[in-house]
Each structure stands twice: as structure tokens, then as C-alpha cells.
Design a protein that fits this description.
Structural class: alpha+beta
Number of helices: 12
Strand order of the largest sheet: 3-10-7-8
CATH superfamily of the largest domain: DNA methylase specificity domains
Radius of gyration: 27 Å
Strand content: 15-25%
Largest sheet: 4 strands, antiparallel
Shape: elongated
Distance between the termini: 15 Å
CATH topology of the largest domain: Adenine-n6-DNA-methyltransferase TaqI, Chain A, domain 2
């Protein structure tokens, strides 16, 4: 690879010069009905959504073949102007006429467009000013309008292929890291279920292992935290890219490292709220809607309970004390006295320590794999920014084949 400015053999061209609109419809053919997922691409609708949303009459659905580009006119947070996905299915399928289907000039050009539309730099220059939101937030852009969108492309097909292959390789690294991460998380779940439940363990009330914390923020701490399902207690601005807290933080609870907070609302896979320990910072403040607590002197192994909370084994206790019909926008109505009267297991201390050591080691593995995944995703972002603008060339290196 070598550094370069935008090369002379690249051209800013409308998509109509490299894509042909496909108008073939299903008619009476028996085809598989697909939808387009952000991560999975063109995929069977039942597999993607768990049910079919196809019309009774699908004769006007658009046929999609291997290598075709499908434009999804539905905005998401990551793709506010819709996404482009390429079909890798070795059979003809069909998608709703709400999607645009196009045949690229060559397969690797299709891949290039797929990456172009997911890149983070300013793409879709033409679409941005003409997008209008339609029913159910569908983007109202005609096929002709979409094809007027201009992008910067290398004219040489060899270079198109070279860029696409670099990005495919990076996607493979990301997919491998993601599969490994998913496997390690499943392994940890199995370990927690196996190690953290024993019918012969004695139990005590929650308040014997933890004291409630109602320490107000009298020191003007400005590290406002929220509970993330995967990242634990984390600064709001770091997590949301903005502050969603009150201007007056004096009524917030002040936590120090090693203390816990329970969020009474549904969060990710936590159907009965999430317990998290403050590990990331020395101190911080949380909303008074949270229930906060710290280990008592009798609690010799707080790490054990950190893992126990994460296992969701306490859900049965929480479900028993949550008032019927108490969910309000996902918020559980749980009395503080009931909360601290829940039962917690108390294994022998040596058993607590052994279990904690195994589960903490699993957490370290997950953290390392997560960091690698995030690094690979950053590398992909950098490669797209450089390769798709011609700032870095791969043409010469790939021409040696």
C-alpha cells in the first residue's frame, strides 16, 4: 500500500452508471421471501423476524439474484438514510417492493458499494437533501432518485476488487472475533449456572450481606453514571455521547469503587433489572431511582455476589416482590424493604473464593476478546475511510496476482 491523494483515475459518478435497476417480479414463481437485516444482509424473513410479514399476494415482489444490491429504505440509528446490502445467496429470492433491487456492473463493485454505504464518512450526498420520512418511518426515495446518488469510485475493476478483498478480509477477522466472544459468553453463562446454585447452601437476607446506601452527592461529584447491560456503571456522556441527567446533582447518590447499584428497569437481557458494581472509576453519582448498596463487614467475598447478581439467579426473588402490573415504561415497582429482605446464598468462604476465581478468569478472557473485536472494528473503520477515498491505494499490490 502507498499513500496518495484522490487519484486521477477515480471518478465521482452517479450510481446509474454502475447499477441497473432490476424490475423482474415474482409472478407465479415459488421463491423464498427475504428481508434485509443490518448485520445479516439478505436473509430469510422467518429466520430474521421469527414470522412472515409478506403480503398474501407476492406476485409483485422483486426478484433478487446472487450479487444483486438491495437498498433498504428504512432508517436505523447506524444508517439514517437506509442501507445497501449485497446478496450472497446462491438462489433466487424475493423482497418486498418497498426495497430497491439493482444489478451492479460486476460482483466486486457491488461489494464496494456495500462497504461504501456503511462507511462513517459523509456518504449519500445526494440522498441527504431529498429524503422524506414516510409511513412507519420508511424513507421516500424513488429508485431513480437513489441512482442519482454520486460516489467516488476507482474506474479500474482490478482496484475495485482489491479494495473489496481487503475489506472482506477485515470482516472475516471481525466475524471470527465475534463468534469467539459469543462462545466465551455462553461458556460463562454455563459456568455461572453450574457453580452459583447449590440446594444445600444456607441463605440469609440481603441486608445481612449488604447495607443500603443513600449517601447524597454533597461533594459536587459530576461523574454521572448510568447502568449499561454490557459495560456496567459507565459515565453517561461516554455511553450516550451526551448528558441525560438533571442539572442539580445534589440529590443523586454518591458511590465509591466497589459499591453496587441496582437499576429497576428492563435493560438488554436483564428482564428484572441489572445489578452492577462500580469498578471503572474511583467514584461517581447515580440517579436516586437506583437502589444502591455496599458489602457489610460480614461479606468476606463481594466478588462472589457480583457474579451471582450477573447470573440472573436472583430474578425469581425479584419477580416475587415486584408488584403485579407495576411495570411503567419498563420500570419495576420494588419496595426497598422487600428488596433487602430477599434471600442470598452463603456458601463456605473457601467455596466463594474458588468460584469467584474461576468466573473472574472467564471475565478476563471475555474482556480481552472484546478489546480485540473493538480494535478490529476500528481498523475496518479506518480502512474504509482510507481505501474508499483513494487516500491509500492497493492497486499495485494486488496487480501482482
Amino acid at each position: 500500500m502507498k499513500n496518495a491523494t484522490v487519484p486521477q483515475d477515480w471518478k465521482n459518478i452517479p450510481l446509474s452508471e454502475v447499477l441497473e435497476e432490476r424490475t423482474e417480479t415474482v409472478g407465479t414463481r415459488d421463491v423464498e421471501i427475504c428481508s434485509v437485516a443490518v448485520n445479516a444482509g439478505v436473509i430469510n424473513q422467518l429466520e430474521h423476524l421469527g414470522r412472515s410479514y409478506a403480503a398474501t399476494d407476492t406476485s409483485n415482489y422483486n426478484v433478487v439474484s446472487y450479487g444483486d444490491i438491495v437498498y433498504t429504505k428504512s432508517p436505523t440509528g447506524a444508517f439514517p438514510l437506509g442501507i445497501v446490502k449485497q446478496s450472497h445467496l446462491n438462489r433466487d429470492v424475493a423482497v418486498s417492493p418497498l426495497y430497491g433491487v439493482y444489478k451492479p456492473a460486476n460482483y466486486y463493485l457491488g461489494l464496494l458499494l456495500h462497504y461504501y454505504f456503511q462507511s462513517s464518512f459523509k456518504t449519500n450526498h445526494y440522498l441527504r437533501p431529498i429524503v422524506n420520512k414516510g409511513a412507519k418511518n420508511t424513507i421516500l426515495v424513488s429508485n431513480q432518485g437513489f441512482l442519482k446518488n454520486k460516489i467516488l469510485l476507482p474506474l479500474d475493476e482490478t482496484e475495485q476488487r482489491a479494495i473489496a478483498e481487503v475489506l472482506i478480509t477485515q470482516d472475516t477477522l471481525i466475524s471470527t472475533a465475534q463468534r469467539l466472544l459469543d462462545a466465551k459468553k455462553q461458556q460463562k453463562q454455563w459456568l455461572m449456572q453450574k457453580l452459583l446454585w447449590h440446594k444445600n447452601w444456607k441463605t440469609v437476607k440481603f441486608k445481612k450481606m449488604f447495607d443500603r446506601l443513600t449517601r447524597k452527592n454533597t461533594v459536587s461529584n459530576t461523574n454521572v453514571m448510568t447502568i449499561s447491560a454490557w459495560q456496567g456503571l459507565i459515565n453517561q456522556e461516554e455511553y450516550f455521547n451526551k448528558s441525560v441527567s438533571s442539572e442539580d446533582l445534589s440529590g443523586y447518590y454518591l458511590l465509591y469503587n466497589g459499591e453496587f447499584a441496582y437499576n429497576k428497569s428492563y435493560s438488554g437481557n436483564y428482564k428484572f433489572g441489572a445489578f452492577k458494581r462500580l469498578d471503572r472509576y474511583d467514584s461517581g453519582v447515580v440517579s436516586p431511582l437506583y437502589i444502591c448498596f455496599a458489602p457489610t463487614a460480614e461479606n468476606k467475598c463481594p466478588d462472589f455476589y457480583m457474579h451471582y447478581f450477573e447470573s440472573s439467579l436472583l430474578d425469581r426473588e425479584i419477580k416475587a416482590i415486584a408488584q403485579e402490573g407495576a411495570r411503567n415504561h419498563g420500570l419495576l415497582n420494588i419496595g426497598v424493604n422487600d428488596f433487602f429482605s430477599m434471600r442470598l446464598p452463603v456458601p463456605p468462604l473457601e467455596e466463594q473464593l474458588a468460584i469467584s476465581e474461576k468466573l473472574t478468569a472467564a471475565d478476563r478472557e471475555i474482556e480481552l476478546i472484546t478489546r480485540n473485536l473493538e480494535q478490529q472494528q476500528l481498523i475496518k473503520k479506518y480502512l474504509m475511510q482510507q481505501l474508499l477515498t483513494g487516500k491509500i491505494r492497493v492497486k499495485g499490490a494486488m496487480n501482482d496476482d
